[in-house]
Specification:
Elements lengths: L2 H26 L4 H24 L5 H29 L6 E12 L4 E7 L5 E6 L3 E12 L2 H10 L1 E9 L2 E9 L8 E10 L2 E7 L5 E14 L5 E14 L5 E5 L3 E5 L5 E4 L6 E6 L5 E5 L5 E8 L5 E3 L4 E6 L3 E6 L7 E8 L5 E5 L1
Parallel strand pairs: 2-6, 2-8, 3-7, 3-9, 8-9, 9-10, 10-11, 10-12, 11-13, 12-14, 13-15, 14-20, 15-21, 16-20, 17-21
Antiparallel strand pairs: 1-4, 4-7, 5-6, 16-19, 18-19
Helix pairs in contact: 1-3, 2-3
Length: 358
């Protein structure tokens, strides 16, 4: 037997030994997707180190031997845990077992205004007000993994707190998550908060979940999410900024300055027109419909644009500076003399725009 043939047989033998040893081990101790990924990272790092070492000392032939060990281990993992790993991937990297905990933070907010901040993930945020001088913040936390015990461990690893302070006569409430090193993929969190009917300021963000507001009066509201809708039921503030993707925006708002944007979602707003304000509404692949007041005390300045869509306006007494099927600019006669003035700018694509009266 030549030396090269003997070395090839040695590598094959190492592969079979690693395969058999891995089969015995992984049959008794099934692995999770995270463990599989960590093993792949370690195997890749080992191959890089051995290759660099062999490059400096070409007489050593350790690369082939290490490769045989690594291939045996990986093949044994796939043979013993491949089906479970595939199911693990379909579950987002975590198994079907779920552990759940409900956490509630209660307190008193006697100050004249309240600031509330949440940066959530994998779940919705719901905020509403009540006629009490107190607040209640409720969290429903779910953790997943491949076993019930590991799901419980994931649940215990996530720590939450509500930082409470007073600044400038305003109660400040900030929800804080202390994440484990594994990240947030194993978790989903639903946030529901009841705040006093006072002047509110909100800074809310999430992912894979909508944001729902009800009966909000205040100064500034900032909303950001992905793969979720924005629902605004009775939002009356000075400034509103909201953005989402793959979600619609809808509700009743009357705001001094509004910027709302989404993609692959429609925008449908009712504006009572009780005060002057400006509205910038942007979407793609979604229709935009605004319903406004027909009262003669309200004047409108409109700048509407779409592509591959139609614009319909049902307001009286408009003077057009641009009147095309896909682009219109118009203003109410004697706009500057109206008690209430609304500026509405809408931009969308592949969808219609409609401005109608209630």
């Amino acid at each position: 037997m030549s030396r090269s043939t003997g070395f090839s047989v040695l590598r094959l033998g190492i592969f079979f030994v690693s395969l058999g040893a891995g089969w015995i081990f992984f049959s008794s101790y099934p692995i999770t997707l995270r463990t599989f990924v960590l093993i792949l990272i370690a195997a890749g790092a080992m191959l890089i180190l051995v290759s660099l070492f062999s490059w400096r000392k070409p007489s050593l032939r350790s690369t082939g031997l290490v490769t045989g060990v690594i291939l045996g281990i990986i093949v044994s993992m796939l043979l013993t845990s491949g089906v479970a790993l595939a199911q693990n991937i379909s579950d987002g990297g975590f198994g079907p077992y779920t552990a759940q905990e409900i956490i509630t933070y209660n307190g008193v907010a006697s100050e004249s205004s309240v600031y509330f901040e949440v940066h959530n993930f994998n779940g919705p945020i719901t905020i509403s007000t009540w006629d009490r001088a107190s607040y209640s913040v409720n969290l429903t936390i779910r953790a997943r993994d491949t076993t019930s015990g590991s799901a419980q461990s994931n649940l215990a690893a996530l720590k939450t707190s509500l930082d409470e302070s007073v600044a400038g006569g305003s109660k400040r409430l900030i929800l804080v998550y202390d994440m484990p090193l594994t990240g947030n993929s194993a978790y989903s969190i639903e946030v529901q908060a009841f705040l006093p009917s006072k002047t509110l300021s909100l800074d809310l963000s999430s992912s894979n979940g909508g944001i729902f507001l009800s009966r909000i009066n205040g100064t500034t509201v900032s909303l950001s999410t992905s793969n979720g809708q924005l629902e605004l039921n009775g939002v009356y503030v000075d400034r509103l900024e909201g953005s989402t993707s793959n979600g619609r925006i809808q509700g009743t708002v009357d705001i001094g300055r509004t910027t709302l944007s989404t993609s692959n979602g429609q925008i449908r707003l009712t504006i009572p027109s009780l005060k002057s304000g400006s509205y910038d509404l942007v979407t793609s692949n979604g229709a935009v419909t605004t319903t406004v007041s027909p009262l003669p005390s309200v004047g409108y300045s409109l700048d509407l644009s779409t592509s591959n869509g139609v614009i319909n306006i049902s307001l009286p007494n408009l003077s057009y500076s641009l009147d095309q099927r896909t682009a219109k600019r118009a203003q109410t006669t004697d706009f500057s003399g109206k008690a209430i003035q609304l500026t509405i700018n809408i931009d969308t694509s592949n969808a219609n725009i409609s401005v109608e009266t209630s």
